[in-house]
């Protein structure tokens, strides 16, 4: 049995070795992909719930690989973070998005996700400012999406980065609202423009508790004079119930899935209503 255990150990070590090599290869791939603009922005429409009119789009990172596979952000963003390349990636995606936006109606808003680390560093905003100028993108169309937890961990620095973007005219959006830790003082101090109700509440909203939570979120937003976006609207009944509840904006597979730039341009060329 000691022999079997020895064999198991060797097998285990071989597997570890292979995994480490795979990870190193993946790291090299990710580095090259970020540097070579191989990662691209996809876009998901955000609509006015009652009319289906497209208000804006959220930019979502995708990595098309040889062979046609499209890799989602869950698989590479943690690695990009670990390599310290999040700002590089975001700026590369935004540059591509700003160029695509030349084909869109001028008032389509663009939502961009910023992670906690990007708020902490505070080095993003000067580079973003020059990018906006270089690409001639109106900052008033920019919506900066941050989660509650990103704000919690890096309060001081986050405020500065967000204030800068704010001064440029960008909107601030709380992402995944209800899933993290937020306080009323944050809502007050940061003067958010919008909050995005996390899809778990939206999808559970036929239940009494989630229904009341969604009502409370919409009530809170309206009391603060800000707008709400419901995320993860997958079914007709969700859209209908959200209209009843007075939720102004919605996003989800029921309206449109995330799509590449050329498909979005064709969609917008055909009209603003989904
Ligand atoms: P998120 O910011 O909450 O983005 C919404 C996610 O929900 C997207 O997943 C979108 O495809 C998905 N979604 C949209 N509608 C529906 C629906 O009706 N049902 C369901 N089940 N899902 C829906 P995706 O594209 O896989 O992105 C996952 C997360 O990765 C994002 O969550 C965001 O946190 C992060 N992410 C994506 N792109 C970027 C980026 O460029 N920078 C940063 N920092 N994070 C990004
Ligand atoms: Ca988001
Ligand atoms: Ca979200
Ligand atoms: Ca999320």
TrEMBL record:
This is Diguanylate cyclase/phosphodiesterase with extracellular sensor. Residues 23-272 form the EAL domain. It comes from the Bacteria. The chain holds residues 421 to 694 of 699 of the full protein.
